[in-house]
Fold this protein.
Amino acid sequence: MSNSIKNNKSDFICKIELKDLISHLLRRAHFSAESQFTKLIGEHSGLTSRQLAVLVCVEQSPGMTQKQLAEMISLDENSTSNLVSRMLDKKYITRKKLPDDARSNSLFINPQGKKISKRATSHNPAYQRKITERLTISEKEELSRLLCKMLDI
């Protein structure tokens, strides 16, 4: 784990190695997964991982509100609104005002969105294999379990 060294004042300073910082490892794993997503899914579909998450959620829960979407994909409402606007511009989804609450919008996937989502998700098995290629089956299961525990999901 960590080692200690002395400075001139005879105080102990903790020497930290990056491999001991879980936050650093999670950040690196995230960047690696995003890079592989771009190579294995994004290049075939033109989608980012966040855009695919939007399409999957809206397709599975037609009529969901932007607030519900934000909660499902763990983004703040402003970021979700910007993401939804980009998806609307691409004609992947539609937004309709709720009849009983004019301030809220319900979201629906369009045929173009279904088509691009299907293309992207068809590459998902190869993507999942790539990002976990150094793990055994039991290690993959354990990683998934631990991440869900950390995220309380």
Notes: The longest strand covers residues 101-109. The CA atoms of residues 92 and 111 lie 7 Å apart. DSSP finds seven helices and four strands in the chain. The longest helix spans residues 22-45.
